[in-house]
Amino acid sequence: MLQWLPCLRTCGGWIPIPLATVGWLLVLSCHQALSASDPTQKKSQLAHGSSVIIQRDEWGVAHIHGYTHANAFFGMGYAQAEDYFWQLEDTCIRSLGRYAEVAGDTGISSDILNRSFEIVRRSREDFQQLTPDQQEMAAAYSDGINRYLATHPDTKPRLLLHFEPWYALAMDRHMILDFIYRSAHVKRPGSRGEDDVARRGATDQTTSLAANSWDVPIEPLTGFAAEIHQAIGSNAWAISGTKTASGAAMLFINPHQPWYGMGQFHEAHVRSDEGLNFSGACFFGNPFPTIGHNEFLGWSYTVNVPDIADAWRVTFDDKSHPLNYRFDGAYREATQWSETMKVLQDVETVERRITFRKTHHGPIVSKENDTTFIAVQVAGLFDLNRVDQAWDMVMAKTFAEWRVAMSYCAIPMFNVVYADRAGNIFYAYNGTIPVRDPAFNWTQPVDGSDPRTDWKGIHKFDELPQVLNPKCGYVQSCNSSPFTTTDNNDDNPVAANFPKYLLEDHNVDMRRSKMSRLLLGKVAGLTFDQLKTLAYDSTLYWAMTEIPNLQRDFVRLQATEPALAAEVTPYLEHLQNWDFKSTLESTQTTLVVAWYEELYGFGYPVETLKTEYAKDRATWFNALKKGAKKLSSLYGDWKYPWGKAHRLQRVADQPDVQSAGIRVNSLDPSLPIAGAPGPLGIIYTVYSTPEIPFIRPQRYAVVGASYKSVVEFTDPVHSVSVMPFGASGVSMSPHFFDQAKLYSTRQFKPAWFTKDEVTKNSKTTLDLQR
Questions:
Q1: How far apart are CA 728 and CA 266, in angstroms?
Q2: Which of 85, 335, 521, 716 is most buried per CB count within 10 Å?
Q3: Is 359 exposed, middle or buried (0-12, 13-18, 19+ CB in 10 A)?
Q4: Do 228 and 256 contact (CB within 8 A), yes or no?
């Protein structure tokens, strides 16, 4: 790089990916806010319209200013490329269905999924349906990326030498698809295993990828990969001025996304002289923050499980017309096409010709037998109304304006938590949820020949669960049911008022939600600094509620199994002499985590006991014994500080969390971290790699609280933020790992917002001319 300018941290999902995938769409609508007939404005544009300013604060966060909206997005494209081109390109390659060209066999699954849904064709064609002004906005973002590449020859793309404007559509859709496809009640196309890769020759077509997309072997995620896939979640709170010292509403933004790969976050502040002023976070490939705040209001998303994707069992039994499939007592004809895929084999690529097929239900993704296939559709995947929704949300000045934008229901999923300067707080269970015949079991593939299984439109926003200005003074969303939003049932939506198929997390109440309700229910006269402290709260809800209740079971154990009781007594006494908070020095945290994982398993959500511990709580003491022995084996002592066992380290240029988890090691620098797995009911949520006895006994954080921000809607708005690593993905940058010190010590950095604040605290300034 010719100069260092720290990186804009971007989301990634997913995760999954997924909380900020709508960001690029803001580019496309923004020009609608211009008054093209204003001659004074036109004259000013001629004088100043080519200027793009990127100012960086001491943490390397980009504050981008353009005289026009388009200029601001040009700056965003440039800044993202400068900060972490490797990740930006990686996301784009996936979104073009070309990942196998750089990743080999491990990219096949992604490419098959992308091409089955025709992401590239639809995105290229749909781009032409946008207005000329919208196309200009998308072009500005890609132009910024291309400018960076043209002026930084040391940055070597792996595949993409030039970025096209329509790529923004493809990236938005692929990230949504990758994150949501798991909701379709079918397995996703699977990649080959390592043994298959080892056996395959570069030119051996007999053992290469299957000729039909639906014949690609399906292999479910297992082990650490499955745990990470399930760990994507979030916390979000909105607190009314009735509970704050200033009388202003406050917002806590806390998505839990992967810290590596497509789902990692990027922080930025984008402003134009045409009225745009928004600060927050998004994914690389999204040219605008999609969670955060403007001068008047803000919001965050958390993962929910609305039923937005379905599978149909489709019958092809017409031997004379093999593309005919049964529907409504007759036949319809499917569309079939072939594409050439390139797959990296050793140092060169080989071509494979793959056949795809689709019905009116969606693409065929798997085959059950010679005549029965599975088709899948994802609601809202290609909905261009996301353009207007995203832009209107960002530009809204009042709750009424913002809610109208939300009512488009073009963002396929996610709970939304909102607060504003007027004092409103709001929660909604958002989704692009199809209207269905409730007579069918939509958690399984339904009969594709029965017209009653066709979708019948989309549920309106008013038909979805939501809470506005509850009497309790707060709303929280931590990946739980909307019916547990507050601790006051009168404030919560009533489950009976909604169709059962609407949501699949109907009865879910995570311990993080329980902990949030407990904390928020108690607050009164809450200050900004106190909310910052709560945002890092490390109370372990499971330990706090379960350990005291085990006393009666322990008395029974002393009578029935005195030897075991004597053996676990030191462990229990150690845990009872504790405030149930995770700290760097806490040896109790290390013991409780090991105990919990023996009882419940690993990963997320794992809030259901293993079978062997479910019937008799006396068996929990045997699990405690096993957990303590595990720690002694790993560390030489069952009393081991959590901060020594749990570490924060960053490795560069990893395509996903699993790859990063292989490369972290105890020889490189790392920092202690007090966060712990979310199923324990901790707000400071962090998920980590497994311990490897003798080789790497430490756990390294890779998923969890990936962007934390606290916002107070005073005038002017006041906000702070932090990310687990730093603003730059470039390992030689001073901002590659500088925020990790804040994260480790439970601190925030200022998130400068006003023009004067940004100017005063700017450390570097780059003036780009378009």
A1: 9
A2: 85
A3: buried
A4: no
pTM: 0.90
User: Is the distance from CB of 257 to CB of 703 less than 8 angstroms?
Assistant: yes
Quote the tokens at residue 142.
Answer: 């890609």
**Region for 659 from its dihedrals, namely left if φ exceeds 0, alpha if ψ lies in -120 to 50, beta otherwise:** alpha
Q: b/e string for 45-56 if b means 16 or more Cβ within 10 A? A: beeebebbbbbb
What digits encode the pLDDT tens for the residues 212-244? 999 886 555 556 666 666 667 899 999 999 999
3-state secondary structure of 362: strand
Q: Concatenate the DSSP letters of all residues of 559-628 into one string.
A: HH-HHHHHHHHHHHHHHHSS-SB--SS-HHHHHHHHHHHHHH-SSSS--S--HHHHS-TTHHHHHHHHHH
CA 184/CA 311 separation, integer angstroms: 6
* DSSP strands (E only) in 673-740: 686-688, 699-705, 708-712, 718-722
> pLDDT of 485-539, one tens digit each?
999 999 999 999 999 899 989 899 999 999 999 999 999 999 999 999 999 999 9
Helix axes 167-180, 108-116, angle to 10 degrees: 110
DSSP 187: P
Residue 388, burial from CB neighbour count under 10 angstroms (0-12, 13-18, 19+):
middle
Pairing status of strand 699-705 against strand 62-66: unpaired
Give residue 230's pLDDT. Answer: 65
Contacts of 637 (CB under 8 A, 6+ apart): 631
Measured CA distances, 704 to 11, 23, 56, 601, 655 (Å): 12, 21, 26, 18, 17
Structure tokens at 643: 């901060």
483-484-487 Cα angle (round to 5): 130
Stated as kind and residue range, the H or E segment containing 122 is helix 119-127
**Inter-residue contact 227 to 605 (CB < 8 Å):** no
Share of the chain above pLDDT 90, in %: 81
Percent of the chain with pLDDT over 70: 88
